[in-house]
Amino acid sequence: MHELSIVLSIVDIAEQQVALNDAQSVEEIELEIGQLAGVEWDALDFAWEAATKHTVLEKSSRKLTIIDGKARCLECGQGFSAPTLFTECPSCGSFFSDLLSGKELRVKSLTLI
Ligand SMILES: [Zn+2]
Asked: Cα(100)–Cα(21) distance, rounded to whole angstroms?
């Protein structure tokens, strides 16, 4: 499951930061995940529950910022919001576009205790 490996790598990052900073655990973690990163939110919650048990993230509160997909048309240069990877340009109907945002998958901040 894709989401499980995401959570496991987040746990890794958190464990490393706790060790580096001589902290005990993580009070709060902020994640930024793009709408087009291919993450299923239910699966992410499920994986989170399972994979953070007995780790520094077990009791942390999780803030999740979802970043909207945005693209720019390669034909006419129009910027538009792209809820899927195959969103057509609203101005000229082209499917050729550059994705500007929406594939993010990162830990934005960790509050250690
Ligand atoms: Zn266009």
From this structure: 34
Phi-psi region for residue 5, left (φ > 0), alpha (ψ -120 to 50) or beta?
alpha
Q: What is the mean pLDDT of each run of 10 residues along the chain (113 residues)?
A: 92 97 97 95 96 97 97 98 95 97 96 97
Q: Which domains does the chain have, with CATH numbers?
A: 2-112 (3.30.2320.80)
Q: How far is the CA of 23 from the centre of ligand 1 (A)?
A: 50
Cα(97) to centroid(ligand 1), Å: 8
Residue with tokens 């087009």: 36
- Residue 64 CA to ligand 1 center (angstroms) comes to 31
pTM: 0.87
Distance 15 CA to ligand 1 centre (A): 45
